[in-house]
Every structure is written in structure tokens, then in C-alpha cells.
Specification:
13 strands; D-Maltodextrin-Binding Protein, domain 2; 2 domains; single chain; elongated; 6-stranded mixed beta sheet; alpha/beta; 18% strand; 5-stranded mixed beta sheet
Amino acid sequence: MKNKKTLIGTIAALLVVVLAVLLLTGVIPLGQKKAEPTPTATTAPTEAPTEAPTEAPTEAPTEAPTEAPTEAPTEAPTEAPTEAPKADITIALPNDATNEGRALLLLQAQGLIKLSDEAGITATVKDITENKLGLKFNEVEAAMVPNVLADADYAVINGNYALSAIQAGQTMNALLYENSESPYVNVVSVKEENKDTDMAKALAAAVLSQKVVDYFAETYKDGKAIATIDNPTDGYDATVDYAALAGKTIKVACTLDPHSFVLKVVKDILAAKDITLEIVVVDDYVTPNTMVDSGDVFANYFAHQPYQDDFNKQNGTKLVTIAGVHVEPMGLYAGKQADLSALGLGK
């Protein structure tokens, strides 16, 4: 009997040991079912929420707002002013070398156009790189610009031709002028071989006289023509042998106003020394230089220095300046428009 109880106790102890081993090795999970659908539940929530929210919000908001605002506002404002100008305005301009460039530089100074960086005093309308108002230009011979003024909204006119038009009774309303420091000084020119002669010196002394300075001060009080003579003479040069020049004639080609009127003052000065000044009036910007170059006249007085420099360069001539006399500020004159408001410059 005792042995039977001992055997049962031994078997029970073995069962406890086996059960413990099975629990420790996980063969029989403690407090869990043998099959858990863990992988399926974990994969679905992890991948779906991660991909959907990440791609959708990132691509949609980023591309739409970035491209639309950047391209549309940038292109529209830039092209609109060019394709749809604010006004239909025609401006008449002189078409000769340097004076057209001078006129365009005046318009550029007012912010109405922009010229290429390479363009200088010989600029033409082809050198315009920006024209926000869509301005149209009528290029005509300088002397004819006052004649087409009535058919244009505005005209840029050389001072001498504006003065001639006023003398002829035409109403001329200048709305703005070049700066008073204009480099376009009108000069007396001769051939290089004659620049040091007594005849050239006598002519220069007379044209640079106080009487000429007084003429400009009294006649052009409105500033349409300004003498640039710093050290006026009494009309004569002490180094000149005036006795040797007595009885001789000096022929000078010029345009009408103020050049021919200034030369009338000079004529009286030279007449006191028995020297005759013959004034030959022309109405273009080429003939006076060709006449000097050919010897038909001794000198001319009609153009500013930049024009003469360019003429020499283009034609191979050697015309030199013996006197810088005055400036005629180029101006923008009213045509069909009575003021500057059409150009956005106010009245």
C-alpha cells in the first residue's frame, strides 16, 4: 500500500515537471489562445494611413499654388503695356544725324522711352528698346518739323528752326527744353588749313565779342537761345593785321535764326576795319559743310559741335571749330496736344 502511494506521488511530480516545461517553452501559451491574427491587423492600419495622407497633401497643395501665382502675375503685367498702349500719340522728329539722337535723348530724359546702351547722339528710332506708351514717330527733315507740327501731337524741334517759325508768325508753344547744361554749342567752322589765318582770327574775335553777348541777352530773354561766350572780346584780335585784310570779303554760310542775325552784328564789327562779311543763308544741315569743304565759302555757322564731329567722321572732312558761340535748347512743342498730360507728365 505504501509503495502504491509512493508511485502515484512520483507520477504526479513528473506531470508537474512536464507541464512546467511546456509552459516555459511556449508550447502551451499562458493566458493566450494558440492562434492570434496579429500580422493582419498590424499591416493594414500602418500602410494605409501612411501613404494616403503623405502623397495627397504633399503633391496637390505644392504644385497648384506654386505654378499658378508665379507664372500668371509675372507675364501679364510685363506684356500688357506693350500690346495695349495707354495712348495713340505721334511725335515729329528731325531725321538728320545727331539731331534725331538729340531729340530721342530728350524724350528718354523725361522717362518716355529707353534707348539701347550703345546708342549715343546718332541714335535713331531703331535704337528704342522700351516704349511703354506706344509712341509713334514721324521722322522729317529738321527744317520741316515746324511745318508738320499741326499734324502731330507733339514735335521735337531744333531751337533755330523754332525761332524761324516764330519769326514767320507761327505760334510755337514749348512744353519743355533740354537741360541748360546742354553740350550742343553752335560753332563757327573752317577748313583745318585755314584755322590759324588772320581771316579766321578776325572772324572769331568778332563773333565772340561783347556785342554778340548783348545781342543774345536782349533778343532771347525767354532762354530760347543762350550765349556761351565766357570771355568776350571787344570785337578784335590784337595779333591780326587788319590793314592787310582791308578790302577783302569773308563768306560765311549759315541758317536763318539766330545765326544770320548774329552774323549781322559781326558784319558791322568787321566793316569798321573795311572787311566785308558776306552772309549766305541756307536751309539744310549739309550744304554749309560741303560749301566750306569745297572752298565756296570760308566758314559756316549753323551747327553744334557733336554734329560737326559726326559729319567729319562720316564724310572724311576736316572742319575745325574757331569759335563756340551759343546754345539753342531743343524743345518739345505742342501740336494737337496742348499740354503734357497725354504723356503722363502733367500740365
